[in-house]
Amino acid sequence: MTETTRAQDPAVRVREEILAYYAEGNEDGRLRQGSDRLEFWRTQDVLRRLLPPAPAKVLDVGGGSGIHAEWLARDGYAVELVDPVPLHVEQAGRLPGVTARAGDARALPAEDTSYDVVLLLGPLYHLPERADRVSALSEARRVVRPGGLVVAATINRFAGLHDMLRQEMYFIDVHRERIDREMEEGRHDSEDGGHFTTAYFARPHEAPEEFAEAALTVDGQYGVEGVAWLMGGIEDWLDDPDRREAVLKASRHIECEPTLLGTSGHLLTAGRRPR
User: Fold this and answer.
1) Are 226 and 263 spatial neighbours (Cβ–Cβ below 8 Å)?
2) Among residues 43, 66, 69, 196, which one has the fewest Cβ atoms lying within 10 Å of its Cβ?
3) Contacts of 95 (CB under 8 A, 6+ apart)
4) Residue 233 carries which DSSP code?
């Protein structure tokens, strides 16, 4: 099977429980409120420093309702979004300057070398099997131009533990048992009592290894929330413009510190298709 025909493989499917979770429509508001705004603003902060100048052509894979596609289009980028959830495609398609269509990260409906940038800010942590994650990264490599940028988000292996400790829920037996299992296996089961759907939580070294397996050269890794998301009062800090800027600056100071990458809730791994 050639690279181009791989993108039309009808056998690729997204898990039903993942589709059902996002069909509830909660994702559109998640990054717009509360402490999750830190994830949004820090992702935006990192990407604005990594992206080539507008009007580069960006493919936002698994871009959800268009939370990032929206500001990318406002910044002047030519944005196309691919997502497997019909509701997300409908929502993103209403955004000015954004073209949205249905698709799977492992079989992108796109031509070879047709984009300057490919973003995977959600797909990798909904692919529990390593082979599927490498397949998604290989598809990103196929559709990005030589020298083009690929950025992928992962959820850290210990994010659940940190979050349960922050909320003082780790002391409840049922939560502690689930979190201990997740730390050992890296897998979150949607039927296992958590508040998320099927997901894979990765150690920091895994994404660079998978990039390399997909023939992508890694440029760097960035801790998104750093340690700030674990601090008491973070929501109030984000409400105050001066404190918010201070938190973003503090997070930038430690974003690439190897010893602290595992403390962040999410990581961004950036790489390129070799020229």
Assistant:
1) yes
2) 196
3) 66, 69, 70, 73
4) T
